[in-house]
Amino acid sequence: MDEVFSFDLTFAVAAIATLVAGVARGMLGFGSALIIIPALVALYGPVEAVVIMSLIEVPATISLLPTTLRFANWPWIAPVGIGSLVTIPLGAWLLVSLDPEVTRRAVAGLVIGLGLVLASGWRYRGSPGPALRFGVGAASGFIGGLANVGGPLVVVFLLASQTAVSAVRAGMMAFFSFSTALRLLIYGALGLYSLSLLVLSLALAPLFLTGIWLGTKAFNKVPEALFRRIAIAAVLIAGVVAAIK
């Protein structure tokens, strides 16, 4: 990767994808990785794409902490985070060990399937206990460590419940804050960082933050019903894009 990065047409495409992804993250609380990852995989490679996405999430995660701390139900989301703690390392190890093409298509199929379930109008009617939340976190952590697209599992689980939009969005942010920090530590332990990746991430991060700011402004004007429709569409579109990359 050190000899690949330069400020050229390739970077311009990556910049556009990053800005659009930031808007999705700011408005919906998720969707950024599913927009950026397919673009960066094509431009720089699968491992580089996952690492770059994790790095540019750092300033974004910090900027969204006030909202996260204010609205997130931490006791509720804690088992999800603990579940991901167990499986993110395994996913990260497989990232550098398996054929990324097979993994990408499997994840895309899962995302599309979950989006269709959500679009059908299904809602989780019960009161999910810690064991179920732990299982969701474990599955999401595995996919997140492998491809940095584990968010849809948590997203579909939260959106399917009878939860206010502000709490859903904050819950997503809380989980992403935890999983991003853990992935960064593990990727570092696996030696996946390089100077060029760090420079590229620093160049893309301001665009990501700009998109988040624009998306946050849009979120304040979006009714709850429309928010849920946009979230469903984002999951489905991202899954299709990942499948046909």
How would you sum up this structure in a few lines?
This protein is mainly α and 245 residues long. It has helices at residues 9-28, 32-44, 46-63, 65-71, 74-95, 100-119, 130-147, 151-159, 165-189, 195-219, 224-244.
Q: Give the overall pLDDT as a whole number.
A: 80
The number of strands is: 0
- Largest β-sheet summary: none
Topology as H/E string?
Answer: HHHHHHHHHHH
Radius of gyration: 17 Å
General description of the model:
- With 245 residues, this protein is mainly alpha-helical.
- It has one domain.
- It contains 11 helices and no strands.
- Helix 1 crosses helix 10.
- The longest helix has 25 residues.
- 47% of the residues are buried.
